[in-house]
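Z., the sequence and structure:
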Amino acid sequence: MPRKLLDLSLSHAAGMQIALLLLPVRDRFLWSFPDRRDSHEERYDMEGLLKGKIAVVTGGTRGIGYAIVKKYLEAGASVVLCGSREATAKEALARVRSELPGAEVDAIWPDLTDTGSVFSAFSKVAEKYGRIDILANNAGISQRTSLYDYTEKEFDDILSLNVKAVFNCAQAAARIMKGKGGAIVNTSSVVSLYGQPSGCGYPASKFAVNGLTKSLARELAKDGIRVNAVAPGVIRTDMVAKLPEEMIKPIVDNIPIGRMGEPEDIANAYVFLSSDYASYITGAILSVDGGVII
């Protein structure tokens, strides 16, 4: 760009930012999103953000995955939750139907580490609903085994579910989304960015998820498919909730925001990245950690 035009462009951008900052906070928001001025509820609630979308959520029976299922449903999506077993999937399905009566939700339980099982299950979802718009690639396991005690099976297991299953689901979903567009959101972790004291297989697997996310974002953009990841910090899941207070306090003391995250905090990020508000975002690893990695 010629220097004169570049200077004009920069001056215009700076002027727009200054004008925006001079507005009251409420007017800044309305000015940024004029098409949402008429409805107070729509401005601040997620209702309708995913209206008409078809979403698949792996690891959707508990914790963060279950929170994603509920937030997607509240945002207007039809959701198919994935469980590792038929019993747990059906139990979660019954629970969410009782908590959100009338919600369009179903359940499947493929073996995510088996390509054929994933393709068969996702194809049936597409046949029933006509497409898949969103994949929340959330299933995974954690480990804290010391390097000195790691077994080959432990290492293989964590890579199989945390990496291979993510690949399998992304591939199956992308083949269905191709030509129609869609959003894939993977679950990473902040430990993929700075490691953890033991259980090296877990951060290694999540670092691989980051690599998949960025590579697939580049590859699938031409097909209208966005790929992002959410990297949760310390979240109050069932496992963490059982820890004694003397273990929790030092953890919270190291979080700048001053509290532990809730599954809903992560689910909110999933809704945003899955929505049209994130239509120009792909290849991002969004840390939702209360400021831990600042």
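Residues 167 and 212 are 8 Å apart (CA to CA). The longest strand covers residues 225-232.

Let me know what you think.
H.
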